[in-house]
Amino acid sequence: MILRRHPNGPIITRRDLPPMPGLIDSSAVFNPGAIRIDGVTYLLLRVQSRGRRTFLVPARGRTDRSFTCAGAVTELVGVDRLREPGQDRDLEVFHVYDPRLTVCDGQLMVVTAVDTDRGCRLVVWRAAGDAAAGFAGLDRLEPLAVTGSTNTRNGVLFPQRIGGRWLMLERPNNPQGPGVPPSGSTITLSSSDDFAHWQPEGTVLEGRFRFWDELLGAGPPPLLTEAGWLLLYHGVATHFQSVNIYQVGVALLDRDDTRRVLARADDNIFEPRALYELTGQVPNVVFPSGLTVDHAGPDGCAPNDARVCVYYGAADTAVCVAMTTVAALLDACRA
């Protein structure tokens, strides 16, 4: 088994959240962004109220299992004034969700999906909270950009410039039929000089029709290794008719040309099997959204013996973690 579940099951459930304004009795917590800074792991949780409103809540911990959640939701500065490039009207925002965390040039950055009156958009934020609050500034986010004006999700930043530019993976959304939420079968690349202005660079990965990853989207931000960039992604099998099954895959991208796929696992490396993954708000889901390593070199390159923790949402209901190593993920890419 490439990824090993934590033996005690979910690490954060709705019962672990302290009461806070708007979230006296939450319904679910899932799909966390994750980052490790100075030996501390910080999570940014997607939390859902009983009214099905979405909030972000920071958490921190020094072990894989034990986390302390903040006593208030993250403040989203200017969320009511977000505007697409070149537009003269603000977006009406309904939900901000599925955060991904990346440190870029020493600044903690967050990419979220934003559900609006014009479809789903990506927003790049910077953590601007009070460091003394103990949550790496994740208690307050300031927006840098709405990245575009097309329907898209699953945005993740690379942690360093490549070819002099910042890069981001995303998943364009396409209609899937009447009454079905839009989704997508390609992961594409965008680039920027300043995080504020983004331009498309082409397709990186495509879904495989009638197999386990017909639909797909980027998971945690890519991890730099000696062999290239490791990318975990979620794949969705839709051809079972009765239910979509969310699983985890892995691919290896070239270090300098990130559109070039060096290797990709044929099979998924993780799939719903535990009861808490099979049952919940959305059954049969493991959704990878955060990744940390226990050590890396000065250039940010994680060695083969580095221990990897993958944080994921289980059935859109709870937060879980699974462990592996860089070597195991690289071996899986070539299988």
Q: Would you write up a description of this structure?
A:
The protein has 335 residues and is mostly beta strands. The protein has one domain: 5 Propeller (Tachylectin-2, Chain A), CATH 2.115.10.20. The chain is built from two helices and 22 strands. The strands form five sheets. A five-stranded mixed sheet has the order 6-10-9-8-7, with no helix packed on it. Strands 15, 16, 17, 18 and 19 form a five-stranded antiparallel sheet that branches. A hairpin with a 5-residue loop joins strand 3 and strand 4. The two termini are 13 Å apart. The relative contact order is 0.15.
Keywords summarizing the entry:
335 residues; mainly beta; Tachylectin-2, Chain A; 5-stranded mixed β-sheet; 2 helices; 22 strands; 4% helix; globular
Can you tell me the CATH superfamily? Glycosyl hydrolase domain, family 43
Total helical elements: 2
Shape: globular
Detail the poorly predicted runs: none
Can you tell me the CATH class? Mainly Beta
CATH architecture classification name: 5 Propeller
Order of helices and strands: EEEEEEEEEEEEEEEEEEEHEEEH
